Amino acid sequence: MSISKRQSEGQKTGIVAMLVNFTLFAGKLVAGLMSNSIAILADSFNNLADCGTSLATVIGFRFGARHADKGHPFGHGRMEYVAGLVVGVVIFVTAFSVGESALRRIFATEPVTFSVFPAVICVVAIAAKIGLALYIRRQNRTVASQTLNASFWDCLTDTLATTIALLSLILAPLTSFPLDGILGLAVALFIVYAGIAAFWSNLNLILGQGLTKPERAAIRDVFHNFTVFKRVEELDVHDYGPESKILLAKVDLAASPHTENFESEMKKCKKVLTDHFGFEEIIIYWPPNIHKKS
Fold it and tell me: Which of 17, 131, 255, 263 has the highest CB neighbour count under 10 A?
């Protein structure tokens, strides 16, 4: 099984995210136990769930690199989308667990103890998550993965969640109001949002997501730059994974396919489409029984 540079970078990004998230989980767990803050403990288990999603990302890229076989003639590229779906499910389940703990704390208030160490852990965690988000976004410029995009937004959501946990640590000891539980519930809602976004975007890809209007317009513009094409009648894409997309284009011809420069124009057009849109294969066809060779 050969792994492309894109898949290698995707795996590396997942491993880095997994290491960062496990370190944050351990630090926040200690901070949460020291301060008795449900918001910080909830945030720590959110990072543990993120370790699982990072592992799913690595597995998705690894299995997506498998070659086509008899049972899967178009390869295994959709495993990346499945991995993204798993990311969404894990995040969603974590949110419900966190929300349940927060609700219990609201109705059975326990004192939160402020100390410097848990506060420092939260500040470091916020900085680490911002750094990880920037790293994932930079990597995803090359990888262009919905799974990594979900991880990027999850990092930003985690940053907000940890900020809320830090506020809980600072403010909760100052009042008898169940602030810790309420802010813990707010953390859970942020996690729910990240889970729904990750799940929905990858579900659409698995079900089959067509070309967007801007993509259609851009592809039509490419065809219009070549004089052998009169107009584009239909455009369709078959998505078997980020590196295995097939474009089908039905066109009307402005010139006979038997003219001297027809084949070279076709090749140039396909090369432009491949370079700009990353299609693995491009099939251009036209109605039969026209431009017959005389």
Answer: 17
Structure tokens at 289: 């029984």
In this predicted structure, the answer to whether residue 291 has a pLDDT above a threshold of 70 is no
Q: Do domains 5-207 and 213-285 have the same CATH topology?
A: no
pLDDT tens-digit readout, 2-58? 456 777 888 888 899 999 999 999 998 998 888 888 778 878 887 887 887 788 778
Longest dimension (CA), the chain: 92
| 254 and 229 Cβ atoms separated by less than 8 Å | yes
Provide the CATH topology of domain 5-207: Alpha-lytic protease prodomain-like (1.20.1510)
Helix %, strand %, coil % of the chain (to 5): 70, 10, 25
Dist. CA 52–CA 220, nearest whole Å: 42
DSSP letter assigned to residue 253: E
CB 130 within 8 A of CB 49: no
> How far apart, in Å, are the Cα atoms of 196 and each of 189, 192, 209, 216?
11, 6, 17, 27
Mean pLDDT of 86-91: 77
H/E element, 238 = strand 229-239
What whole-number distance in Å separates Cα of residue 198 and Cα of residue 258? 49
Please say whether the structural domain 213-285 has been given the CATH code 3.30.300.20: yes
pTM of the model: 0.64
For residues 7 and 144, the answer to whether their CB atoms sit within 8 Å is: no
Contact, 282 vs 249, CB < 8 A?
Answer: yes
Pairing of strands 229-239, 245-253: antiparallel
CB neighbourhood size of 1 (10 A) = 9
- Each domain of the chain, given as residue ranges in start order, spans 5-207, 213-285
Render 108-148 in DSSP notation, one character per residue.
Answer: S-------HHHHHHHHHHHHHHHHHHHHHHHHHHHH--HHH
